[in-house]
Amino acid sequence: MAGAPVKLGSILSFCIVWYAVFYRKNDLGDVRLSPVKEHLLYLESGNKVGAGKLQPRVALGYGACHDLFVNATSLLNPEDLKGNPEHFNEISSKEEFLKSFTYFFKHGAAAERFMSNSKLYDELVEESLKLPDSRWAIGGNAPLMAKRFYMEGWKVLLGAKMSSKLRKYIPSDIQIVGSDDEDMRDDVHMILEYKADEKFGPYKSPRANRYIMHNDENNPLLTSLEKFGEYLPKFDPNLLVISGLQMMDNFPFKQEGRDLREERLDLVKKQILSQPLNTLSHFEMASYVDLELLLHLTTKILPYVDSVGMNEQELSNLNSVLEYGKVIVVADSNPRVATALDQLRKTFQMIRQKNKEYNSKRKLTRIHVHTLAYQAILTVKGSEWKRTKAAAAKASLTAHRYVCNTQNIALDKCKLLLDDSFSTTTDDNNNSRVFFEPTKPVACWEEVLDNDEVEICIAPVLICTEAQLTAGAGDNISAAGLVLQVEK
User: Fold this and answer.
1) How far apart, in whole angstroms, are the C-alpha atoms of residue 455 and residue 468?
2) Would you say residue 211 has pLDDT above 50?
3) Is there a contact between 90 and 115 (Cβ–Cβ < 8 Å)?
4) 312-324 and 337-357 are packed helices; what angle lies between their axes, rounded to 10 degrees?
5) Lowest-pLDDT choice from 102-111, 232-241, 296-305, 424-433
6) Number of C-beta neighbours around residue 370 at 10 A
7) How far apart are CA 179 and CA 193, in angstroms?
8) pTM value > 0.90
9) Alpha helix locations (H) across 335-422?
10) Tens-digit pLDDT profile for residues 54-81
């Protein structure tokens, strides 16, 4: 629904009656699903990625790993849980692991933690491999986003140190740089998945999600950074994606008074600054709990990127760190649109302030927030980001396809959580609402933030009711949101 949000008034009662008559749920399910699907597909098919000389190029860093997927409730026994669920910044024992997992499980919240106990970690990997449904895949933000860009028609450069075995998971047309060590030991991440309404002892998960555990050696050090930097000038990307920095979270970096993490982040900053201004830069947020690392990101990374992508948990956390200097470990797993938009606006304004504070030649001109129920993309009018409406639609479709692990969108495996109308802010003095039209499901409007005209688009997600994949969903959704927004 294009145009500015409408004001409440006589139109409200008319719309409520109209929706009650035509868009109520019937015996066949939510009748909004079919028109929503058709229009999202229409927006996607009408917007293509350039080919030939117009093919866009993306360079992505840093890192890669083997992902070991395991059913969380098959691996873990709730009877082993002693005491109440509790969160820990890093995990050093089985007891802490169980308490931490259960803490996020009961909230249905995604989490990622470093396990400092290597012996215990190896034992858990061995236990996982004995389960009949455990499986291997390539992991890491950069490789998963790289594969999505490649699938959508982009030319891709990937900065990642990986063995020849792990390289087999990557399409051969993707150029990989980072190491010549073919026999290196790849980092392994354990992906503990669970479904919506699954039970673990007395606790029930409100939504499908995953808990990630790692004991990395390569990724926290960004071992591919220098080699990646050597290839950037010749590759001449249209878009540079910075990701995987959460691997530094709570990793033991400080040695003999030297902060190796800060040194590596300074090199990332230098790498971003080395790119010409017409190369757009995007930072992919993740699950962070290390306040020192987050504060580094607000001074060394965020002031120098054009775009940021994140989920609802990461938005709340980033907003809190920027505004109050505090970490939020868990947030609402399905926030109201108005709440997310208020946080999005505030985050945009605070990062724009960082642009000024650090005399950055770049300004933040794009934020993409992906939630279970909807996609929200903000872009500055007149910036280099194009086709925001279509990008929101593509991100929404990708969310369903990836989680259901299929290209075909079957309506009997879909549900909508977005209401028939939503407020655009929680401000009581502003009663603007947007009415959700199933035949025009992507709502876009313009606002002014700090003297800049911005466009905000909200697209409903056809939520997959039979989740096959959860880990990597955010990477695929974020990449899909970028795919149509960069044009040569």
Assistant:
1) 33
2) yes
3) yes
4) 50
5) 424-433
6) 29
7) 31
8) no
9) 337-357, 388-404
10) 999 999 999 999 999 999 999 999 999 9
- Cα-trace Rg, the chain: 22
Q: Tell the residue number behind the tokens 């396809």, with chain if given.
A: 401
Site of tokens 């106990």: 117
Instruction: Tell me the backbone φ, ψ of residue 310, rounded to 5 degrees.
Output: -165, 165
Structure token digits, residue 234: 């010749």
Q: How far apart are CA 248 and CA 268, in angstroms?
A: 13
Cα(347)–Cα(450) distance, integer angstroms:
12
Nearest alpha-carbon partner for 436 in 32, 38, 42: 32
DSSP string, 355-371: HHHTT-S----EEEEE-
pLDDT band, very low/low/confident/very high, at 330 (cuts 50, 70, 90): confident
pLDDT digits (tens, 9 = 90+) for 75-115: 999 999 999 999 998 899 999 999 999 999 999 988 889 99
DSSP secondary-structure letter at 427? -
Q: Check if the beta carbon of residue 455 is closer than 8 Å to that of residue 378.
A: yes
57 contacts 237 by C-beta, under 8 angstroms: yes
Say how far apart CA 271 and CA 159 lie, in whole Å: 12
CA distance 366 to 361: 15
